[in-house]
Amino acid sequence: MRSDPAGAGRAAVLSLPRQAAADVAAQVQRRVARLGLYAFLLGYLLFILFPLLWLWLSSFKTRQDALAVPPRLLFSPTWDAWEKVFTAGILQPFGTSVLVATSNIIVALGLALPTAYALARLRGPGKERLAFWVLSTRMAPAFGVVVPVYTMMRLLGLLDTRLAVTLAHLAFNLPFAIWLLMRYFEHLPPELEEAALVDGATRWQVLRFAVIPPALPMVVAVAILIFVFSWNEFVLAFILTSTEAQTVPALVASLAGTMSFDWPLICAVSSGAMAPAFGLVFLVQRHITQGLTLGAVQ
Amino acid sequence: MSVQPAALRRAPEREWLPLLAPGILGLAAVTLFPGLYLLWMSTQGLQVQAPGGFVGLDNFRLLLRSPGFREALVTTLIFVTASTAISLGLGLALALALTEPLRGRGLMRTLLTLPLIVPPVVAGFAWKFLFSSDVGVIGAFLLPRLGIGVAPLGTPRLAMAAVVVADIWSKTSFMFLILLAGLQAIPPFLYEAARIDGAGFWTTLRLITLPLLRGVLVVALILRVLDALNTFDVIFVMTQGGPGTATQTLTILGWKIGFTYFDLGQAAALAVFMMLLTVAAASALIQRTRDAV
Fold first, then answer.
1. Which residue in A204, B184, B243, B271 has the most C-beta neighbors within 10 A?
2. A67 part of a folded domain
3. d(CA A21, nearest CA chain B) in Å
4. Sign of dihedral through CA atoms A112, A117, A120, A121?
5. Chain B contacts of A284, Cβ < 8 Å?
6. Are residues A113 and A16 in the same domain?
7. Range with the lowest mean pLDDT among B81-85, B125-129, B145-149?
8. A52 touches chain B (CB under 8 A)
């Protein structure tokens, strides 16, 4: 951008004053373009950050301050709403969400690691069909999963339990984990595995000692993305639970659906719901693209 | 794909079965089984008042004939088109802007990732809070000052615009990240060559960037369309499909049929229809790219 070989080449041909004028014009144009670029980016950042910032700020307001029009930027902050989160018994959904997300990580990775490794090393039309089936299950509409799962859980008496939500989430997290790890294992260099096999190791030992260690960054990335899915997922958790096994998004929706809006309280719960996002954003940016595009973009 | 080394090839296929089986059986249990169960449900009369056993395709017939379904289909198409077009366009603009060597680029990329991992329910609530005609910075403060005295979430067209804005807020980051990865994979020497040939920004975009980005753009488009077709959380929190049925997409309608009227047979029929729509959307888009390449 800074040096301009095209302009330098032209300088020899053009007469000096004309060339100087053209240079100034080009420079002005570049400045204007750059200013426009910054304006666009800052405008978009404002669009992204303002709703979150406003939510967070409002969680420190009294109900009167939150209801004020014109909106109050200066107010005396209070912990009232946050205290209510801790005292009104609505802390439980946070525990449920953590539990559902962690069990999804453990079960999905436990099942996916060997399966993904086997799929990565198998060849032939059977493998291709299996891999395609795995991918296609990940694309299923959530509503198509929740209708039969709800009916089955009702028959089994498992509605409004953490187990029901965990199983429903696995329908998305398991194919996601298998597919991503399979794509990753396919690209691992086979020399280590070969050496281990020659030394008489079993497939399980190869997986444990020669495949998972070099793939560890990817395994961690998949675990984070499973966590994010379970933490954010709404339609399954909302329909399968009512009070006992509510997850955080279901809690936010039920609070936001009541007629007597306690705006600061919902703002406080929502801020709590965003906490992992803020914790993870710096960690995941690198891995998230590959993960969420199912490895379609390298 | 690499050639299989000898030691790996010697292994009989049977050897893989113990590794393969648990995951495949688990996946079948949580996806294939519910899928088949859904198909069976869609042929059953499952209303609370009058459970009627096998009803053939009656659930589908009733569903396709109901005016609510047709309306929801149109609403879904409007929502999907608006949200997809804008978030894809914005995502591309942001990705192009942030491949330029700007000050603060790394921080901006990170901040733009944020909405992707904020729960969509929270995004929906944040925008409901802003658009509220009682307490909202936009709905109660800015709009009245601009001479627009109506409640955004209580007016059909504005409510649709509002849920689209919230969905764009939530999903553009994903488009941005995919397209950024795609742009970074284009070899820089092509841009050097274009610049030496005196090509301007728009020429470069048309002749180099867009053609080389086509594969990535199609992946982004497919994922976005499938996601928008299934949007539930943002709309549910902001309007529950209202006012009236102005923002009632297929998923919202399905929730009402299945879980407020408790006609699970017809809800299952709607779910089967959405599965077919998903398959059709995905294969149409894939087909179109194959033709284009």
1. B271
2. no
3. 18
4. negative
5. 113, 117
6. no
7. B145-149
8. yes
- Residue B44, strand partner residues: B54
Tell me the whole-structure pTM to 2 decimals: 0.88
Q: Distance between CA atoms of A38 and A47, rounded to whole angstroms?
A: 14
Per-residue pLDDT band for A1 (boundaries 50, 70, 90) equals very low
Question: CB-based contact (8 Å) between A53 and chain B?
Answer: no
Residue of chain A nearest B263, judged by CA positions? A147
> Over 50: is that where the pLDDT of B1 sits?
no
Residues contacting B239, CB < 8 A, separation 6+: B153, B159, B162, B163, B246, B247
**SS3 state of residue B46:** strand
Chain B residue closest in CA terms to A176 = B27
Contact (CB<8Å) B24/A45: no
B202 has a chain A CB within 8 A of its CB = no
Question: What range does the domain containing A124 cover?
Answer: 82-292
ipTM greater than 0.95, yes or no? no
**What residues of chain B, 16 to 35, have a C-beta less than 8 Å from chain A?**
16, 18-20, 22-24, 26-27, 30-32, 34-35
Q: Which ranges in B118-200 belong to alpha helices (H)?
A: 120-131, 143-145, 156-184, 188-196
Tokens matching residue B44? 């059953």
Domains of chain B (ranges; CATH) run 58-292 (1.10.3720.10)
